[in-house]
Amino acid sequence: MFTIIMHYNKFKEEKQITNELKYKLLNFYGMAFILFGFCVQRPKEIIKGLYEIIRQPEGLITDYIIIGGIGATFVNAGLLTLISIGIIRSLKINITGVSIASIFLMTGFGMFGKNIFNIWLIILGVFLYAKIQKDSFDKHVYVALFGTSMAPTITEIMFWVDQPFPIRFLLSIVVGISIGLIISPLSTYFLRVHKGFDLYNVGFTAGMIGTIFVSVFKSYGFVVQSKMIWSTGNDLILGSFMTALCLAMVGTGIYLNGGSFKSLKNIFKYSGRLVSDFVLLEGFSVTLINMGFNGLIGIAYILLVGGTLNGPTIGGILTMIGFGAFGKHAKNMIPIFIGVFLGSITKTWNINDPSILLAALFGTGLAPIAGEYGWPYGVLAGFINSSVVLSVGILHGGLNLYNTGFAAGLVALFLIPIIEAFKKEERT
């Protein structure tokens, strides 16, 4: 009876935080990115920068800050945020953890790979899939947003294939819609394969799709060139903005939570395994606190290991923030960071190499392993994933922006049966 009363009281408190308020707060975060962009770059330069962002090849790793400037990059990220919110709101969906994760993932990759031009064909493909299945689009909208991880494919074909424009245009449409048509059923299947231990399920799916598509592209002589466009020297301005954003989240969450951290420790009890929707489980206010803390952890990690804050690393931090509503918290993420750090001691790369910084930030997609089986397994997962992530990009040619999601899925497929086998032995 006591448990029922506690959940009823939590429900009453959460009812005071209306869905409209959640939308307003999310819109505020999107607008903050746009306003910041216009504060650091002139409007004329931002327009020019957005044009460059749209037309440049955008496979991994392409830092938009170098391509278009800080202002254009943040405006692009903010616009993608508002577009994502608008799509979700048009379907009259209540904001939950998966809503927040999908929105912030769009924001994050608006810093390096997704833009206001290259996302639409994949979303259209998922929409058409829903129509073919006679489903409401709201059942597939999150896959549509997550599925834009393959957006660089559209840019590569539209602007960089050595063919006349009409052929490039038609190929872009066919490929983009095709990705959208198949990513929803495949993601449903692959979720069963890794059993929810890779939070970036669509990233794993997109890695598989990208491997097949790139193999076909190579058969026709179209080879995607790997790249490394990585900005430095902006730690102060970018760190100040991101820290202010995270502190604002924590402060707002505390205010909405009655001026306290009440129930925050409850979030740490969840393994994070899909589906762990913290908004539904513990409420929006405490989830907002967790999101802000996740972002601060990400910022601190980058600065402590001597990394740099730029488009890709901020994208990783924003992903940690978004999934702070859908599976990630300090307790299950830190073991992943430790695993990557231990790898830097024994392996041939440095802890602050660009790919390794991203392997740590995005590698927290394996946080549920630490949450479910304990921190030693989380350390092991981070240690192994830091190697796997360096090898799988060649398979999809960098066209899957969620490269670590792909690697994490493979690591989960490898580790989970082994862990389960030894756990079974321990139980017997």
Structure write-up:
The chain is mainly α and 428 residues long. It has a domain at 235-421. Helices cover 73% and strands 0% of the residues. It has 21 helices and no strands. It has helices at 2-15, 19-40, 43-55, 64-68, 70-90, 97-109, 120-132, 141-146, 151-160, 165-194, 201-219, 235-256, 264-267, 278-282, 284-304, 311-322, 330-346, 354-363, 367-373, 375-396, 403-427. Helix 18 (354-363) packs across helix 20 (375-396). It is globular, with a radius of gyration of 21 Å. The two termini are 35 Å apart. Residues 1-9 have low confidence and may be disordered.
- Uncertain stretches of 5 or more adjacent residues: 1-9
Shape: globular
Report the biggest beta sheet as strand number plus sense, adding barrel if it closes.
none
CA gyration radius, whole angstroms: 21 Å
- Which structural class matches the secondary elements? mainly alpha
Strand content: under 5%
Order of helices and strands: HHHHHHHHHHHHHHHHHHHHH
Q: Please, how many helices?
A: 21
How many β-strand runs?
0
Helical amount among residues, as a percent range? over 70%
Mean pLDDT: 93
Termini, distance in Å?
Answer: 35 Å
Per-chain topology:
Blueprint: H1 2-15, H2 19-40, H3 43-55, H4 64-68, H5 70-90, H6 97-109, H7 120-132, H8 141-146, H9 151-160, H10 165-194, H11 201-219, H12 235-256, H13 264-267, H14 278-282, H15 284-304, H16 311-322, H17 330-346, H18 354-363, H19 367-373, H20 375-396, H21 403-427
